[in-house]
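Please review this one:
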Amino acid sequence: MGVDQTIEGSNIRREWSLKRVSVQLVGCRKTSEMVDSSNCQLLSERGSSEVINQHLYNVKKSISNNKLLMKYQHKDSGEKPYHCLDCDSSFISSNKLMVHQQIHTGEKPYGCDQCEKSFARSDTLLIHKRVHSGEKPYHCSECGSSFTTLNKLMVHQRIHTGEKPCRCDQCGKRFADRGTLFQHKRIHTGEKPHACDQCGNRFARSGTLIKHQRIHTGEKPYLCLDCGSSFATNYALNCHHRIHTGEKPYGCDQCGKIFAHLSSLVSHQRVHTGEKPYGCNQCGKRFSQPNSLDIHQRIHTGEKPYCCDQCGKRFSQPSYLAKHQRIHTGEKPYGRK
């Protein structure tokens, strides 16, 4: 919900009175709790309540100043008289033009005293410093999560409201924020801007690249607290946990058999559908499981990766090796004498 506070009275023409300069307190949609952030509706100035209140006081005090008066007149009329010579952008004030021009010049005059990063704007530096301080001043009243910026809080709150205002113009799918929509659009464009410097594989998302690179580095940062096993992804850890919990959340709607992993259910369902998506490129024979295809292809390649440690004889399948080893052990598992 929003609450508007207005500053009454001014010496300027009534039709664009300072009543249009307001402080908007942005709060959670479901509660009356206010978030300490404000916005001057005319100049789009942002900051804490104290900063905006001072800004409005200065506006009221200095409204007779022609330069400030012109800013408000331009905002009210929609006029943007300050033009960038490098692109077609226009702005209501010279200050906003100067900030914009740093995009073209690459100038970043605001440096962080904690690290080597620098920024074009002082407010961006202020937000960045929260990385070092750990400050997260914006809190969600629904779940207690904290965020470094108001924008991140507002995007987060869509988890609770279910709001998805960002729509893909290709397929109609909706998303809670523009960043996720932007990444989704790469499905349609085929764009994969993130490349692995080890093998050249390309990915649509930076997060997917980071996960992939663990194949090369061997990094497994996700640790199972029950047995000490480690995994490259959080998803793999969650799947592993089901060994300890016995959880099998995926059920077959044909026979009722349940599985710990979705991939196992998908493989099982081929028993019912008869689907055999894996074909041999040598003879055309088809299989329902990829490992069955791998074993079959050894007929063509002659590969025998399983070796008897007693006599050195080799086999194409582990079951053939196990059967052979009974010659050495004398084991008779089927009760024959």
Remarks:
- The two ends are 84 Å apart (CA to CA).
- The first strand starts at residue 2 and ends at 6.
